Amino acid sequence: MSAEIKSHLTDLLTQSLASVAPQTPASIIALERPKQAAHGDWACNVAMQLAKQLKRKPRELAQALIAGLPASPWLECAELAGPGFINLRLNPAAKLDAVRAALAAGVRYGRADTGHGRPVLLEFVSANPTGPLHVGHGRQAALGDAISALLQAQNWKVTREFYYNDAGAQIDNLALSVQARAREQRGEAVSFPESGYHGEYIREIAADYLAHNGDPGDLASVRRFAVAALRREQDEDLKAFGVKFDNYYLESSLYTDGKVEATVSALIASGKTYEHDGALWLRTTDYGDDKDRVMRKSDGSHTYFVPDVAYHVTKWQRGFAHAVNIQGSDHHGTVARVRAGLQALGEVTGAGIPRDYPDYVLHKMVTVMKGGEEVKLSKRAGSYVTLRDLIDEVGRDAVRFFLVSRKADTEFVFDIDLAKSQTEDNPVYYVQYAHARICSVLAQAGAQVQSAHTDGLAPLTLPRELALARRLGEFPEILADAARALAPHQVAFYLRELAGEFHSYYNAERILVADEGLKRARLALILAVRQVLQNGLSLLGVSAPEKM
RNA sequence: GUGCCCGUAGCUCAAUCGGAUAGAGCACCAGCCUUCUAAGCUGGGGGUUGUGGGUUCGAUCCCCGCCGGGCACGCCA
């Protein structure tokens, strides 16, 4: 395994350092993958970092460290380079070990145990049940599901949760909007609510409500019907997108369970609240917020801030010492607020919730372009592009791959025309195509695939073959890094590169050659590539088709 | 005005904990199908990393100023 090789190399350098500079702690030794292949398989910068401290020239120190390296069965050579880098080059056997590892581990290849089975709660999408899911929710769903999968692959016990804001003023607004449309459809003269939802879907729900013999005068009934209808629609959209949640948490339950009141009481007991202008405030500025927040309005109702805090308390109480919230960056203002609320509660409960709880992944907005113009994402205008639109037009795999192919904190320009007209240029097809090609070769090899032995890899000597093997060996590191950074785009880029190296190899060499030993070795290699492509695509929620 | 985030090739984006000559794709130009899938491959031109300083062996990355863009600044959610 690559991890074993890395620790083996670190070990060699540690031994050398101990003889060259006995007083120096070995913990400073770090290995990195050089960007350029010419710089070997691993590089170490320890000589430059220690040069000043040891009062020696970096290159001279590096040379001494190289000279002191013990013999190794995997190390081909160590070279001094640049200002004092030590470049380590692995021999073919070490590189090809990744092929053996990938085939031995199968679908588990790339996994690790950094999570140690600890529970972690991921909250994402959390759309209000006031309209269909839009593209921004899609980015969040794709990100959240991929991050969940990455953490699971590191042996975290992941719970995916969707929080429904089904208790606030926007739900009243929804009910009034549907009621007004229903009355219109009955031929009554009504004035549509000033801040009502203007989307076409409101009319559809109203018509459906009437078709089910609903009474437009019964607002509570309208409300229940509308919320149920929109939740159903959102569920269907998520299903079509391939995203499943383990739990749905309803904001309304925080009220019916008394958790909102309990939170208010506890915050008052914390001594961090005060009355002002008839409202109850929390001194969140004591915990880093830039202004104090109202908890209870002068009319006696609560601001959304209180159930938010109550909700996050339940995360902690439910045993999630780790929690990740995936949200649009337009909500970044809530981060300091929620954390401050939790800290204030800690004054009375002594819960010991960390100051940086929960963790946040904030993603920038998705700008949708169509016909060369921006489509405004306005729920009230009812003209935004829905997630369903995108899936229908572009395809599920492409949308998912595309949406996780960029860092979360960069703005996303999704050009629908481009995505539709250039479907063939979408990177997801490039990666999937590599997988399909391998499947095709394997199908022609037929029963010979069974004879692909990982103990006969020695015939693989071409630079392209060793580069592919080396790339396979990187996969576990990529997954560990991506999980640590909560950044699935790293996996997407890795897959693009792996697929590229495979296509290049495929075009240059023939797999099914006459030489039996070489053929078996090459079959083993592409079997391993296929496995890694499958594992990686699966983490991103993208299918790995056998034919295209 | 204050806070947070972003600024990299014509376009869309990478760049690990501060590493070596800043990389891909698209687009453009020139080639490759009698051969396991051409949704592919090979080669080429493309850059003062917004800008000015600082820190150091070394800065796209860290610190400060400025310019440009986004978001948030409510007893809305």
Strand-helix topology:
Blueprint: H1 2-20, E1 31-32, E2 42-44, H2 46-54, H3 58-67, E3 75-81, E4 85-90, H4 92-105, E5 119-123, H5 135-153, E6 157-164, H6 169-185, H7 200-211, H8 219-241, E7 247-250, H9 251-256, H10 259-269, E8 273-276, E9 279-282, E10 293-296, H11 305-317, E11 322-328, H12 333-349, E12 359-363, E13 366-370, E14 373-375, H13 387-394, H14 396-403, E15 412-415, H15 416-421, H16 427-445, H17 463-485, H18 489-508, H19 516-540
Parallel strand pairs: 5-6, 5-11, 6-7, 11-12, 13-15
Antiparallel strand pairs: 1-2, 2-4, 3-4, 8-9, 9-10, 13-14
Helix pairs in contact: 1-3, 2-3, 4-17, 4-19, 5-14, 5-17, 6-7, 6-8, 10-11, 10-12, 11-12, 13-14, 16-18, 16-19, 17-18, 17-19, 18-19
This protein binds one RNA strand of 77 nucleotides through helix 2, strand 9, strand 10, helix 12 and helix 16.
Distance between the termini: 32 Å
Number of strands: 15
Portion in beta strands: 5-15%
Low-confidence segments, given as residue ranges, are 377-381
Largest sheet, described in full? 5 strands, parallel
User: If you compute it from the alpha carbons, what radius of gyration comes out, rounded to the nearest whole angstrom?
Assistant: 29 Å
Strand order of the largest sheet: 7-6-5-11-12
Helix content: 40-55%
Instruction: Count helical runs.
Output: 19
Average the pLDDT over all residues and give the rounded result: 90
**Broad structural category:** alpha/beta
Dominant shape = globular
